[in-house]
Amino acid sequence: MDGTPDPTGCENIYIVVRFVDENYVIKERLLTIATAVAGDAGTLTQTLIAEIRKVGLSTDTILSQVYDGASLMSGRHGGVQRLLQDELGREIPYVHRFNHQLHLVVVHAMSGERAIEDLFNICNVLYTFTRKPIVAAHYQGNTLKRLLEQRWTGHLATVHIILKSFQDIVELLRHVENSASFPADLRMEAAGLLSRILKPSFKFHTQIICKILSLLEPANRMMQSEEMDLQTAVQLVNTAKECVEALRTGKVFTEMWSECAQEREDDIHP
């Protein structure tokens, strides 16, 4: 169960049921998309029960409940998961959506590191800069992606494109900086961005983030499958964790830093 408010203030809710059929095959179906007049835990709980009963299902057969980690849904005392158990008078285990846990960990880790935060701030400025019509007409590389705080997969797409189109971005910034046909403020902005992305640390941090998020992407994608089970999800996360930990060696650091430093020399003296 999840939901989002619409412009009128009503809460649009979707309810998904996951069940085992008579052949013990796991299936997942969208039960309904409902609307609630409010988005508080009590209203959502009553809406959930009413919609389940409306389609002829019995609440007696509910085995577990799955939401994200928002306190409205997961709260131990006043969240939907607790209120549902109180309303039905029995224990119904709550499971925090595993893929969402992975997302929260990744977002928290990236936001807690100042250098990575600075990296994505530059990425955002680059995105805005290349979207300006007068600039976009001269850009030959792949279109940069807009960052979304709610989805780290957008961060992976962003750093991947920057690495792939890095030389195109450098050439664009040099062209804008040195061409009198552009306004002075754009030339100054281009010069500032150029100086930032030509630092070895920018390329290094971009490659590190790309490597880490690329290692997590298979687990993220596979855990969205209808066939996914909890045991396999745990194994996927542990495997991804081991792959990330394998990057934490002096050899990997030295190789990546040397590569970035050499590429910077090539960019400065093409």
UniProtKB/TrEMBL annotation:
Q: Which domain of life is it from?
A: Eukaryota
The molecule here is called DUF4371 domain-containing protein
Give the source species.
Muraenolepis orangiensis (Patagonian moray cod)
